[in-house]
Amino acid sequence: MGKIATFSTPLLFKSKPLCFSLFYLFFSLLLAVHVTFSATKCIFRSSPFDPLQGPLFYYPSSYGQHKHAIPTTRSSCTSPVYFSDYWKVLEEIRKILGRSTLRPPLRYMQRNSDSFGGNFSIQERISYINHGDHGIGIPCGFFKPFPISSYDRTSMENCRGLVVVSAIFNDHDKIRQPRGLGSKTLDNVCFFMFVDDATLKRSSLHNLITSQSSKKLKIGAWSIVKVSSELLYDNPAMNGVIPKYLVHRLFPNTEYSIWVDAKLQLVVDPLLLIHSLVVKENVDMAVSRHPFFMHAMEEAMATARWKKWWDVNALKVQMEAYCENGLQPWNSDKPYPSDVPDSALILRKHSVEANLFSCLLFNELEGFNPRDQLPFAFVRDKMSPKLKMNMFEVQVFEQVAIEYRHNLNLNLNPNRVASSALFANNTTFSGKCEGYLQTMWGESHDS
């Protein structure tokens, strides 16, 4: 007779602690997968990233480029962003640039002026918002030369495809290197940082730049462009507005651009950002919505309350001018989720619409003040042709860039103090913004 087969319990199931450990491990893995792919995350990648090997630049410890990061606490996200594979994005962007045709250009007004922006009146600026005749020149800065070297100007003109731009004037921020760049990104993307003498002097003191006599100044990924800012505006913030909004004129041969405030450090490859937030969305511009405000008037009140601009009367005049010329508070009929952006990060396709918007907004900043969130909705809503804009989630912004505090400025002017009483009630506006405020506060005109 043959032996009868017998079955014994595997050793794996004889050990209760081992079974419990395996169950716990399996449950933990499921939970990790759920958290990774749940809607609370705002950015997703379809494949592992392709990073550069090693840092782009070694900073001396005295420079402190990574001090004072601002923590973020928001975890929920209603519209996450999906990044395609890096190599597929690189190939697609190259194809887009290779088949791009000559776009119908804007004509820019040319004349000599004591002001870089031409110093137009509010009514003159508004007259160019409806741009129906492409034969008419649009005021768009450069009414006096932009004071950079011929070497830098040639380098900027030779930049094609995608450019990442930032600026530091009056040593207001640190020069920080982008992180998470793909291995071919520096071959296909230009990085330009505009600085003045004060910023360049601090960089030299920390030995970030070995020689100022060299034509080509470079710190890691950034090509450094020295701007003789004393020939432009007295306000350093206004000088920073030039590369921020006139990037299409400074880099005439680029198709896309990303503006990065110097308080930010990019941690996602710019090719992935442009592809996901601009190309796939088929828009002219992408910018984060403001984390707190939805109405332009809310931003104006905060600008006065927190003394972000010292001339309170000028703020009142500015907002009254916009109310008088058709500015409306945000409502659900607008094709945008907010009237207030966080403009520290701006992604653009250099289309006619995006270039026109940038010119018109720059004109408002020169006409009033460099607080670019105040005229944003007025220009966007009133301009023609219309701008296609992607205002993405704040959580996306916080995951693609790290924000740091500005350098401490101990030389504050005690006379530049704003009154916190601005806009304390709607009578402050002499009736010009009364309708706006009543609508914003939910009051009925018929009550």
TrEMBL record:
Protein name according to UniProt: Transmembrane protein
Residue ranges constituting the TOD1/MUCI70 glycosyltransferase-like domain according to the UniProt record: 110-406
Keywords: Membrane, Transmembrane
Source organism per UniProt: Perilla frutescens var. hirtella (Perilla citriodora)
A Pfam family of this chain: TOD1_MUCI70
Higher taxonomy: Eukaryota, Viridiplantae, Streptophyta, Embryophyta, Tracheophyta
Statement: the UniProt record of this protein carries the keyword Transcription: no
